Amino acid sequence: MSSSNSQPVAVRPSNSTLLYVAMTAAAGIAILMQATWNLHGAGVLPLEFFCVAAATAEISRVTAPGKSVTFSLSVAVILASLVALGPSAAVLVAAAAALGNGFVPRIRPAHKILFNLGLYTLSAWAAGLAYSVLMVGQGHPTLSPVLVPAVALATVAYFGVNWPVLIGVIRVSTGRPARDVWAADIGWTPGPILLASALGGALGVNYLALGWWGVLLMAAPLAALQFTIIGHARAARTRAIEIAAA
What we know:
Elements: E1 2-3, H1 15-38, H2 44-59, E2 69-70, H3 74-85, H4 87-103, H5 110-135, H6 147-174, H7 178-186, H8 190-210, H9 212-245
Antiparallel strand pairs: 1-2
Helix pairs in contact: 1-4, 1-5, 1-6, 2-3, 2-4, 3-4, 3-8, 4-5, 5-6, 6-7, 6-8, 8-9
């Protein structure tokens, strides 16, 4: 999840917003550097695949009418890479998703790119820590009876960081209360998140069990979820336009 492109790029963010962004980006970049240093055991081709998939997923991000927060299936890819390749790889995949968000289909303002880089990597780092709590002693990556609760805990940790940081930047930028930000911009996302997280965990497990064939098996469900989300978003926008025109 990230902030949308709805705000005009010509509007200069306030100093407090820039400070918040700088702190978030600095923390995320530090985590990214540590993850790169600690990366081991992940093959180059699988890591490249998950990075490209996460960045590509950001291209088709969607939002509900009137909302300032977008959603994409990159979270499913990040969680899949966590299961398939381990916590350090997941942080790199999250960084790739953030860069895909920032540069495709058009280049976003620098402060938004840096903020999302920090937001995504911090969220993936938290997910990796939570995942490791239940997977301690199991090795990474590996199939384990505790994979399902580990992915569930990782999802909670991911959004336990993602949502507060995202709400924080919107609050600093607009002065709106956190409760209003949640109700107006983020409250529509838990449903898609639940489905995406389940499919992401399944994708990671399938990769461990079946290799690239397992990835292919999950392509259709992930595409179906993406098209369903897009369809609901378009229908909601159409209803909003019809109500406004009535």
